[in-house]
Fold:
Amino acid sequence: MEFWVHVIDTVLIFIILGLSLNLVLGFSGLASMAHAAFFGLGAYAAALLSSGLGWPFPLNLAAAILVTAAVAAIVALPALRVRGEYVILLTLALQMFAYGLMLSWVELTGGRTGLPGIPRPVIFGWKLVTPPDFLPLLLVAAVVTFLICRRIADSPYGRVLKALREDEAATVALGKNVLAVRVSLFAVSGGLAGAAGGLFAHYYAFINPFSFSLDQSIFLIAVVTLGGTANLWGTTVGALLFVGVPELLRFLYLQQDIVAPVRNLIFGLLLVAFMRFRPQGIIPEYAGLERRSAGPKAEPAAVGELFRSAARNLAATGLSRRFGGIQAARQVDLELRPGEVVALVGPNGAGKTTIFNLLTGFLRPDAGRVYLDGEDITHLAPWQRARRGLVRTFQDVRVFQRMTVLDNVLVAVPNQAGENLLSLFFRPRRVAADEKIARALAFGYLEFVGLADRAGVLAESLSFGEQKLLALARALAVRPTVILLDEPASGIDPQWVGRMLDLIRRLRGAGCTVGLVEHNLEAVRAVADRAYFLEAGQVIASGHPEELIRDRRLAEIYFGV
Amino acid sequence: MRTSRSRTVLSLFVLGLLVMSACQPAPGAPAPSPGQPQEKVLKVGMVLAMTGPGSFYGQVMSRGAQLAVDQLNKAGGVKGWKLQLIIEDHKSGDAEAGASGGRKLMEVDRVPVILSSYTAPTLAIQPIAVERKVLLFNGGGVGASLINKENLYNTRMLGSQLMPSLVQWLVREKGVKRVATIFWNDAAGRSVNDSVKAACSRLGCQVVAEEPHDIGQTSYGPQIARIKAANPDAVVLGSYGNDVGYIVNQLRAQGVNVQVAGNEWTPDAQRIGGDAPMEGYVVVLDRFDPTGQDPRTREFVDAYRAAYGEAPEFYAANYYDLVYYVLRTLIERAVDGGKDPSQPGVLLDLMKQAAQSGTKFGTVYGGDMVISPDGTTRKPAGLFRVESGNLKLFARVVDDQVIRVQ
Amino acid sequence: MNPDLLAQLVVNGLISGSFYALVGLSWGLIFSTTKIFHFSHALTFAVAGYGFTLAASAGLPLPAAAAVAGLVGTAAGVAEERWLYRPLRRAGASQLNIFLASLGFLFAGQSLLQVVFGPSARRVPGFAEVGISLGPVAFTNLDAMTAAGSLALGALTLGFLYNSRPGRAVRGVASNPELARAVGISDDAVFGLVFALGSALVGLSAVPYVLKNAATPTMGLGPLLAGFIGVFLGGVGSYGGMLAGGVILGLAENLGGLFLPGYWQAVIAFVILFVLVLVRPAGLFGQPAR
Structure:
């Protein structure tokens, strides 16, 4: 009997560990190869503090959590600034380095022999020794971890994570501080893994490096991926299936030297097969979608609440940018006056999108300045510009495919208390109030673009035209004072074009400054107050769209005659 | 919120039940057949390196023990007790796996005695063994931290017991003045290094370089570069397993051509090191010699060869000794004393008494071995030299004195 | 400071660095073109290592066995591209999912090697290292061959990439896949080519490793990590940089031996990588992105 409780205890520790990895891997789409190292760091911290300094158990656990959270955040920091593969690389190196240190730093870690005799925890005067003694503690820890993770997953913060996973650039364009979100996530995830490590050390009363190897990291990734990324129940089931069931193999009295490699062989093949045929895992992320989207449908906010009334002025002077041998923008001066719809037109490759990227900060100019209502914003990051009301859409739409239509818009709403981890856990009322407002706004924007009845479906199931509308609603949710639309009316059915143009006019009416890049000259003629004509990175003409379109020289350039 | 929390708890509980119910039948577990209620079975647990880089050790250790069990059972058991081995895997040194396996042996199979190997898993099992009054033997691990642990007895001589004799030989016979050490960066390797240093300061030599290295390292560039720069007249290894082969090979390749000596030699290490570089390597071992002429040795070697088709090596011998001589003696004493050896604590208490009284156990090494109360063992040991790929005994170690043999 | 020791450590660094450089280039070639974080490259390395060991054990002369290693590596890499990555790409799998599949494949493949060949080390018979002393420094014939062979293969590869039509196609796809597609370069063909080339190189680099150490199922992980670090140290955008990155890493690890115990080598590699990603993520010789 006691042995079975031991198996359950082990599974519980792995559930905590798996949940912590799932936060990073499932919800934000970053592969951490270092979770076994975080686990080990927590274990060694707790072991050393309790054996060496005689600290009591709760203090050890807290220290294990804090130390691991700090290390995870600091070490991941440089990689999180760059791209996904750097996270793999740096966490992999950290894993190998930490494992090497556990083996080599004998004075501290006991090397391969490890640390024996870790004191048993005492809680309320009750000393925990046997597996059944530990069961309530581990059960509580696993449940608390589960609840923490679910609170994060279902929160505005969790929505930002998923948005980041789906499309980093689009998330940045919504004014989200990507680095802060990811670093805080690594801290939380590392802290939970550290907690698992602290519990593990006290439970086994003995640790050595072998529990914290790269194989363990890969095993954890397999458990989370097979169970179902971004689904907490998936991880729970994964831990039961892949940690609990193999313990049963002990009772088959199989030839032991074959069991372990065969088990790993099966895990590896399962991982390949799942990625090919069922990448969402055993329990997919949106297993309960119908049930969840049936949640309270908020009353849409009134149209008047949806827009800031103060349209603003966007100006650029002398913007230049080279790519290798190509001058993509050359000494571009332009201005979008408050309440105006201004179009950038020109042949393919004239540099229109480059200019959008320079204005919004996605590209740094080699020379030139950008001003928003007179304020020099050239040095600001894209997300900072978005927060000041300069918002863009993308030519290739970039809606968050594996999020619901409603979540696509909700995530864009600025200043939500629930995007801050501290508020999320310590100011729940404020978070709930903000969420209510955000939902009302989100439904308002969906109503505005005519997608309110699709709120509960995944964005990937929308048609391309609907996705463009969704992208517009999402951009509006940031509350722009200047909005830059990259080809809003291209590549979609004519029925949607009329609707889109109508929306653009209404935007102007609501007090937005609108910038357009558009191929569809009919559309430009229909909505734009002014246009700039670009060729080879230079503005070669500007004026009323009718005039430009009638100009034969420009028409020749445009149509390449 | 509340409903989903209770759902969480409930599901965990149900899943727990599922796991337990799935396990109840314990498929394939050999149960005593109901037809012969008389037969008494004593379960002997083993926690060995059945998988991982050390699975060779797990294989030969389990073979040695199994041979002893088969022989005893064939002869009708020990005073009516049949022995049954139950083997768990510590994956070549994983403490967690070792503790898990040990727990299962003690809590599910209720074994009164466990034979383990490797330092870390043994230390992980030891506290649980103390709680459960289970007797614990180690015939493989060499870490100094295995000494003076409750319930734990080691039948392999530890590095720190043997190194002084080696240093004595180096200084007196080879005139060595400057010694470089290279050793496993762990408790076992460091205790070897410490005992070499202590012996050196007593015998008048100087340790000019001390190079710890990672276990299982295959490339020793920086360490060997520094050893070479220190210009020693002998290199002493505190490394085990395949590492010995890599080190000797690379020492020779880097032009370090002085006497090399250590505490480990295995056929694998010989293969890795290569016959030419390994020639002349000296090792101090409580080494089992399968060509020995002692009747116990011959009987064991012949039986082992008949069962497995190859000569036993020294790990097989250690675990054979543990079952065939040590455990058998303890079980006999228990039955003679009217006690049930399968009960926890019975074999343990008898082993404590045997250690106190200096009981001489038989051994296939030839002669006897004595297990001390601190958990160390004294048995026949010697100095060997590698000659054309094989070990050749050239001196015996008796009471820490080196005596040449002809 | 002891000048003899310094000289010896520089030589050691060049030897291990040239090996890292070749492994790194073989992986970086695949990564920079396909953007696949091809983790199971470690498996290709191991499979080629076993191929070499078995061929040599069967009595083939060592150069022929080395050719077998190259061929086995190529076959393994091309097979991985064809039957592992291409179906995933067709199914629209994300970069992350492709990486996870690669990880799973490595895990499975290592275990299969262990089941088939056992976990213990396999040595190649019939090769004796011969020591060579040059003044204060000593190395072996194998070390010399490792360094010379790795750098020669690296130079050949660079020549191929910069001076041949398929090489230019590879670089084209690496630097601008849309443009390359627009001018009619087939993704599948180029991907097949880089996998074949990268896997052949890593297969050959397994030869000196197996001769020096031994073939084990997990033999690929350490060299591959060093290769990764070398690639990112040099810069993903620059093939010459990848080679240089490997050599720099080897030198840094060994020269660290002047100040630190040898087993801290891994620490040196990690610190280098950490500082690099912090300060110059595009690598020493790469063009900063954006």
About this structure: The two ends of chain B are 84 Å apart (CA to CA). Residues 38-156+294-375 of chain B form a domain with the Rossmann fold fold (CATH 3.40.50.2300).
